[in-house]
Design goal:
The protein is α+β, with helices and mostly antiparallel strands. It has 14 helices and 18 strands. A hairpin with a 3-residue loop joins β15 and β16. The relative contact order is 0.06.
């Protein structure tokens, strides 16, 4: 379906401010549409003579069946087919007429209005034409279109809604609807007419309450008669109503009492620029709020678990450091130190997860902390170490970030283990990312791989851990070779894994 702005530019002579006015109308006209119990269509003349109109907007009601089963946007209508629309545009007066739909060949509105019989099977459309004013000019016609004889007109509820629709039509004629500004909530679906309607006068007294609105008030503890009284008489703050009357803007607030939460949306009703009342929509969001509270509680529990796991891992790491100092064997000390660093890498991921409400971590931060951990553990005057990092991966799920962080630490640690004593060791880490996968590339200037090295045969515990995490657990790939761009010849290790956990598990 073409956008309103595209149709307006291609098919009409409207100016940019006029198009913007119609865009605001279409963005907010679901409210009068529900009150009308019928479709609303926006007709704009294609030229100054208004010989032809094009439909650039359409909305269906949530309170009644639609008349237009197919999308009418882009449909052209001749003046001869809808003379009432031309009169509405030129005279600036609201007109309601029955129309044969689709019009028989050669027939026009006037023949139907004058009582001429239409062919059998003709559907009669009851069209209410409302002039749309922008500034001092009538620029379009908003038509309420519903099947004649099926439009709901009986009962107090229907009468009140039709009266409210008429008040909105008056605002459209005056150019005061759509309203200039609306307070935004962003958290919930906007309340609709079916959620509950209150009509207040300019003194903020309730004139009408729909059954659903009464139910919402009952859930807030209001049991007495509400008509003729203000909301504050029931202990409910009505500041949102006052703001709507004073500012002439649409306002919104949330009223909470016990476990009940009601969203209140207020639309000022204007006539000649003067506020004559307020239409209040009420939507019960108690269940959503209850779910939010459960999610907050769940998130807090998960963060606390990550925090405790991090503490436990750091305790184990400290115990290993104590054990390392008591050992005499250099090989045993090195093995215990490696285990401590592995645990430290895992603890860093848990610490990051404990500070965030989501299950994702910024891997760039994790990688830098892991490399600093390795660098601090190995750097000494006898074996100077410099580790650099470039690139970015961004957010990763904790289930992927954790093994990736351990693999990174293992490869850097392996480069240090095989470095030459008394020689500066340089390790450059590149973080790689695209929409589908992420990777890490580690290049060092060490002695390089021995002749005939095989990743499947000549690996120790560290690279075995890396292969298990990268290939078996994450479904990724791993390569190792000589760094031909280094002098002397060094080693380059690169591994890549799917960015999303679902992709990772499907590969595995």
């Amino acid at each position: 379906m073409a956008r309103l702005a595209d149709l307006a530019v291609a098919e009409t002579t409207l100016t940019s401010p006029q198009v913007a006015h119609l865009q605001r109308l279409v963005a907010s006209w679901s409210l009068p549409c529900d009150l009308a119990f019928a479709d609303l269509l926006l007709y704009v003349p294609t030229n100054a003579s208004a010989e032809e109109f094009v439909v650039i907007g359409h909305v269906r009601p949530a309170t009644a069946a639609t008349f237009h089963v197919n999308d009418p946007v882009g449909t052209r209508v001749l003046r001869s087919q809808r003379p009432a629309m031309s009169r509405c545009l030129l005279d600036g007066q609201r007109l309601e007429v029955p129309i044969a739909f689709p019009p028989p060949a050669g027939a026009v509105d006037d023949t139907v209005e004058e009582g001429v019989q239409a062919p059998i099977g003709t559907r009669f459309l009851l069209a209410d034409h409302v002039p749309v004013r922008c500034g001092d000019e009538i620029i379009a016609v908003m038509a309420r279109e519903g099947e004649a004889g099926l439009t709901r007109t009986f009962g107090q509820l229907e009468r009140e809604y039709r009266d409210l629709f008429g008040r909105f039509c008056q605002m459209v004629e005056d150019g005061s609807f759509p309203l200039e500004r609306a307070e935004q909530s962003g958290e919930f679906r906007e309340p609709r007419v079916g959620d509950g309607v209150l009509v207040l006068d300019r003194e903020r007294r309730i004139e009408f309450a729909s059954p659903n609105a009464l139910s919402a008030l009952h859930r807030l503890g209001v049991r007495s008669e509400v008509v003729g009284r203000r909301l504050d008489a029931f202990g409910l703050a009505d500041g949102v109503v006052r703001r709507a009357l004073e500012t002439r803007f649409s306002t919104i607030a949330e009223v909470e009492r016990a476990e009940v939460s009601i969203v209140v949306r207020c639309h000022p009703l204007l006539n000649g620029g003067r506020a004559t009342g307020v239409l209040v929509l009420l939507r019960d969001v108690s269940e959503l709020r209850s779910r939010d509270r459960l999610l907050v509680s769940k998130d807090a529990t998960i963060r606390e678990i990550h925090h405790r796991v991090k503490n436990n891992l750091q305790t184990i790491q400290s115990l290993l450091h104590l054990q390392q100092r008591r050992l005499d064997s250099a090989e045993a000390k090195r093995a215990v130190a490696q285990s401590a660093r592995r645990i430290g890498s895992i603890a860093i991921v848990h610490e990051t997860l404990s500070s965030d409400a989501t299950d994702e971590v910024d891997f760039d931060v994790v990688a830098r902390r892991v490399l600093r951990l390795v660098e601090e553990g190995f750097d000494s005057p006898e074996r100077p170490l410099r580790v650099g990092i470039t690139g970015s991966i961004g957010e990763l799920a904790g289930q992927i970030a954790m093994p990736l962080a351990v693999a990174l630490a293992e490869v850097v640690q392996n480069a240090v283990d095989h470095g030459e004593a008394g020689r500066n060791l340089e390790v450059d880490v590149s973080l790689l990312a695209d929409p589908r996968e992420v990777g890490v590339r580690i290049v060092d200037n060490g002695p390089g791989l021995p002749e005939g090295f095989s990743l499947d045969r000549d690996v120790g515990l560290g690279l075995t851990i890396v292969r298990t995490f990268i290939i078996s657990d994450l479904g990724g790939t791993m390569t190792i070779g000589r760094a031909h761009d280094r002098e002397p010849l060094g080693t380059v290790v690169e591994f890549r894994v799917p960015r999303r956990l679902s992709e990772a598990t499907s590969v595995g």
